[in-house]
């Protein structure tokens, strides 16, 4: 049957400069395998499928597929899916807040001056990285172990391990190569480094990960990673909110995730979303 479809650009104020997301609305009746097959066909980092909620508190439910697996949560799919749902006529129970149901539970989303923003979910895995694994990360990134300022697990669903370098230039200079990796862990690496005070952006971020064939890919702009990085950087006093991060520079993109923090400590990750393609897909 024909189903409504949108392709949304997320996290950039300029169309076609952020991270694209495929969104299938009215996904009722699709099997997991049909969703997975279509997701692989789009060849985008993520594709989402919107469904009626199963929890009374939620406005809609979303299933999120990367090229390799179904994800309980991901950031740019959350903002892009919410944008598509609203653009297609979705009306939230609360005008000031939308509640998304996904594998990670209920995710609050709010509308503000800078676009939609989601509340960063709790981390599933935190804490120091084993020294031997840090050595592996340095090898993959093509740098010496001493160039890594700090590393931590920062996993809120996709499995991120976060690596801090001395500055943004060091992040941009990286030439990662997953063929240098000899470990067993699936690699989902987030790298971050600061810009000088007074710069347009506070941090440069890159995200490299394995697809289903184990091939390295770089994500243009990554909401889940920016969420967990913000939780880490704010908790350790390395960052103060609000701030704007830069991501996608090496890919010719202009991602600008905005980080805010409420008085109660809740971290919000937001940015613009723009529908670039809309129509129907036969599934």
If you had to describe this structure to a student in words, what would you say it looks like?
The chain is of the alpha+beta class and 283 residues long. It contains 5 helices and 18 strands. Helix 2 crosses helix 5. The longest helix is centred in the N-terminal third of the chain and has 13 residues, at 75-87. It starts with a strand and ends with a strand. The mean pLDDT is 95.
Calculate the terminal CA-CA distance, rounded to whole Å. Answer: 6 Å
Measured by DSSP, the beta-strand proportion falls in: 35-45%
Please give the count of helices: 5
Unreliable residue stretches: none
What structural class should be given to the helix and strand makeup? alpha+beta
Number of strands: 18
If you average the pLDDT, what whole number results? 95
Shape: globular
- Helix coverage percent: 10-25%
SSE ordering: EEHEEEHEEEEHEEHEEEHEEEE
The profile of the biggest β sheet is:
18 strands, mixed
What is the CA-based Rg, rounded?
18 Å
Task: Please outline the helices and strands.
Elements: E1 2-10, E2 19-24, H1 32-42, E3 46-51, E4 60-66, E5 70-71, H2 75-87, E6 97-102, E7 105-112, E8 115-119, E9 125-128, H3 131-141, E10 150-155, E11 161-164, H4 168-173, E12 188-194, E13 203-210, E14 216-219, H5 223-235, E15 243-247, E16 258-261, E17 267-271, E18 273-282
Parallel strand pairs: 2-3, 4-6, 11-12, 13-15
Antiparallel strand pairs: 1-2, 1-18, 3-4, 4-5, 6-7, 7-8, 8-17, 9-10, 10-11, 12-13, 13-14, 15-16, 16-17
Helix pairs in contact: 2-5
């Amino acid at each position: 049957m024909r189903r409504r479809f949108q392709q949304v650009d997320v996290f950039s104020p300029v169309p076609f400069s952020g991270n694209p997301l495929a969104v299938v609305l009215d996904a009722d009746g699709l099997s997991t395998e049909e969703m997975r097959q279509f997701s692989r066909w789009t060849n985008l980092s993520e594709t989402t499928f919107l469904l009626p909620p199963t929890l009374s508190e939620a406005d809609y439910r979303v299933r999120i597929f990367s090229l390799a697996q179904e994800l309980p949560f991901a950031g740019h799919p959350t903002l892009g899916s919410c944008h598509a749902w609203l653009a297609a006529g979705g009306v939230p129970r609360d005008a000031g807040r939308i509640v998304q149901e996904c594998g990670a539970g209920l995710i609050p989303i709010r509308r503000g001056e800078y676009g939609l923003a989601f509340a960063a979910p709790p981390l599933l895995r935190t804490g120091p990285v084993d020294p031997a694994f840090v050595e592996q990360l340095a090898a993959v990134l093509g740098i010496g172990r001493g160039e890594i300022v700090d590393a931590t697990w920062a996993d809120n669903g996709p499995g991120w391990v976060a690596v801090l370098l001395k500055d943004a230039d060091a992040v941009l200079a990286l030439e990662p190569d997953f063929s240098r990796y000899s470990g067993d862990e699936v690699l989902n690496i987030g790298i971050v480094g600061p810009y000088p005070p007074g710069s347009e952006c506070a941090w440069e971020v890159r995200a490299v990960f394995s697809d289903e064939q184990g091939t390295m890919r770089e994500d243009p702009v990554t909401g889940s990673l920016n969420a967990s990085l913000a939780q880490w950087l704010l908790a350790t006093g390395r960052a103060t909110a609000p701030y704007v991060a830069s991501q996608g520079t090496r890919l010719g993109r202009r991602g600008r995730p905005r980080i805010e923090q409420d008085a109660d400590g809740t971290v919000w990750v937001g940015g613009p979303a723009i529908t670039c393609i809309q129509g129907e897909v036969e599934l």
